[in-house]
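Dear all,

This email documents one entry for the complex benchmark we are building for the journal club exercise. For each entry we list the sequence lines for every component of the assembly. Then comes the predicted three-dimensional structure of the complex as a C-alpha cell string, followed by one or two observations. Please use this as the template for your own entries, and keep the labels exactly as they appear.
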Amino acid sequence: MTRVDHLSFERLDVDGALAESAERAWGMSRGTFLAAAAGGSAAVIGLTARDAAAQGGKLGARDVAILNYALVLEYLQSSFYTEAERLKALRGDAAEAARVVGSVERAHVKAFRDVLGSKATKRPSFDFQGTTEGQEPFLKTAVAFEDLAVAAYKGQATRLKAQSALTAAVSIHSVEARHAAWMRYLVGANPARTAFDQPKSKSEINRIVRSTNFITSRASTQRKKAPRFTG
Amino acid sequence: MTRAAQDRFRRSDLLKRSLVVGGAALGGAVLSGAPRATDAAQNPDADIRALNLLLKVEYAEAALYAEAIKSGALDGELLEFARQVAEQEQAHLDFLRQQLGSRADRRPEYDFKDATEDSDSFVKAATELEDLAVAAYNGQATNVSRAALEAAATIVSVEARHAAWIRSIVGRLPASSATDSPKSADQVLESLSRLEG
C-alpha cells in the first residue's frame, strides 16, 4: 500500500518550466499562464484532498499497478520530447509543440512519481531510433504516442478504485487527447477522426510499444521498426 | 521497460481478463463503433442525472454548429471543422439519448445569434463550449457507474480533440495546462446558461 500524496498533483499546473515554455513559445505572460494554471489545479486538488482523506490516504495494489503503467507511458513521452528539444532538429510549430508538450509530460511524470513514492517504477533507457532527429519522423511518432496515450488512459483509468486517482487520471487523459489533436494538425492529419475514441488494452499497448524498440533497458533482439502512424 | 514493470503489466492483464462485465462492454463498443452504457444497476438515478447533464452540453454543441453552418459566416478550415464536428456531436447526442431512452431530457431552444454572426465570435463560443464539454465529462467521472464511465471516456477525448483543433486553426495554444480541471453539474449549468445568451 502506498500513501496518496494528493499535494503532488497540485504542482502539475504550476510547474515553473512549463510556465516558462508557454511564455517562450506563445508569448503568454508568466502571470497569465500561472493564473490560468492555478485556477485549473485548484479544483483537482479540492477533489483529491477530500477523497484521499475519505479513503484513509491509501492506494490499493491494482491502483498502484495502473499508475505505474501510466508512469511508464509518461516516461516514454517525456523522454521523447525532451530529446527532440535538446537535439534542436525541429523548426517552427513542431519545435514549439515539442517544448510545450514536453514540459507537460514531464509534469505528469513528476506527479505520478510523487504519488507512487517508493513504489514508482524506474525510468527505462530509450533509443528513439532517429525519430527525434527530423521534423517528419518526429511528428509522426508524436501522433502515434499521443493517440496511444489516449487509448491507454481510457483503457486503464476507468479501472482505478481511488477517487483521487481517477479524478487525476481523467484530467490527464483529456490533455493527452488535446496533444494528439495538436500533433495531428501539425502533421496534416484529421485531428478527430471518429466520434468515439476507443480504448486499448494493456496487452495491445505493450505489444505496440515493444514493436518500436524504443525501450532499450532490457535485452532485445529485434531491430528498428517505426511505430504505426494511424493518421 | 524494466522487468518489474513487465511483470506488473502481465499480472494486470490477468486481472483484466477476469473482469467479464467490463470486457463485454468494451467488446460491444469496438464492434458497433459507439460505446454501450447499459449497466447502471448500482445507482441508475446517478447515471441518469449525469448523462442528462452531458446530453444538455451535447444539445448546445450540436445547436451551435448547426446555427454557425447555416449562418454562412464560416469558410475554409473553420467551415470544414464545423461540419465534421457537428456530425460528431450529433453522434454523441444520439448515443446519450439512446442510453437514456424515455428518461432523456428534451432538447432546449437555443439561439446563439451573436456567436454565429462572424467567425471570431464563433471561434470564441466553440472553444468555450468544447472546453466546457471536457470539464463536464471529467466532472461526472466519479459520479457514475463503471459502464457509464467507460462510455463517457470514449466521448470526452473527442471533445478535447475538438478544443485543441479549433485553437490550432486560429493559431492559439492548443493545450495550455497539464490537467483539464473538472466542473461540477452546477458550474456546467451556469456556464451553459451564460453561453446560450
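Observations: Chain A touches chain B through 77 residues (CB under 8 Å). The beta strands of chain A are 2-3, 58-59.
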